[in-house]
Give the backbone structure.
Amino acid sequence: MNDAAHDLHAPHFIGIGGAGMSGLAKILAVRGAKVSGSDAKESETVLALRELGAVVRVGHAAEHVPDGASSIVVSSAIRTDNPELAAARERGIPVVHRSDALAALMGGRRALAVAGTHGKTTTTSMLAVALATLGLDPSYAIGGDLDAPGSNAHHGTGEIFVAEADESDRSFHKYAPEVAIILNVELDHHANYASMEEIYDSFETFVGRIQSGGTLVVSADHDGARELTARVAGRPDLRVVTVGAAADATVRVVSVTARGMTSEVVVELAGAEQGGTEQGRTELAFTVSVPGRHYAHNAVAALAAGVALGVPAEKLAEALGSYTGVRRRLQLKGEARGVQVIDSYAHHPTEMAADLEAIRDAAAGRVLVVFQPHLFSRTQQLAEEMGQALALADASVVLDIYPAREDPIPGVTSELIIDAARRAGAEVTAEHEFAAAAGVLAKLAAPGDLVLTMGAGDVTNLGPAILTELGNGLEQFAAAV
């Protein structure tokens, strides 16, 4: 594959409906490019791209690559035997990785890149919404929709470009941001990283790409982030701003107080972090309109990064309160029979535990989970930790593994997680029939309970089905009375 960012005036996207790919296609279409692409199935995202003028075909076939394609854009999820990729190579059409295309789109803008094992999508979204609320009209590319399909990207008229920077395949090495956020550093993406040392090396390379005189905003609380900070401390042209509850944090989180589905956050900023002098520290309070301590800390990182770009701290803090969430990040899907159904993208044990702890504060009754493991390789490495996380719920239903781009690994099934959960004292049930899961959860739930559909696969589709089953149960109860 040629990783140079080639001519994007007529790009063809393989897998155009994906969270990352669709955003780039949208920005290019708005900029006037002749965009085409293919995806495995129809979706609301595909429909949104067609409304922008993109030509999108369902299925992957060599004939889907148009004669006038100037380049083929792919992600790391596209297999080498994809017929459209093979056709492009036969025809000599340049192949561009998604990260190279994003780097090209960020050219000429003040780039702010958000990295970390967890929280990237939420933090990028918080910044995009807050900066837009302040009238700065940033461009952005996010790995999830803010609200409607296709809202994961925007071509703005302002000078700032906010982008989610993916470490999973080392593609974030392609970016050269003015400001970078690193939320946390943990071992994940086991097909690409064999050890924490490889993870640290990868993040060090990313930090090395920050522009001279730029700023790194990094967690002061997370062990992996602190280790990374120590490793990059010798760079003289890099300003490091640490954020968190730690006493030595540059931007210190004084308190996070849960208020139902929101949080009140108090931070303490050094004078330089609010546009003043180095002397003195000032407290600033603001509201985060999503529950959970980890989301509050994401908002504080967003605050510090925005200030590094010159946005006044008080104005940005107030604007962060206008963020009300992103699809699949503790998104309320609805309520029926007194039961709320909430969708969670959590698929790593740290994310799972954080979301379950966050939602516990908002639950009047029990917290019930239907969990779909994501990837065989992740399950193989982290099944024990996933099971321990599920013990934070009152009861769980575990589905079969969602394979995504991977082939099965012998002996690796969701039973590994179920066994670990039971060892941790969890009440957990296996459900191998995806379509049956909605009925199982509806029978389990009682008024006041919260049901989480959790995972990075198609478990999100169960939310409406659970609500329907709950509604049917209410109708049956009424009929019986």
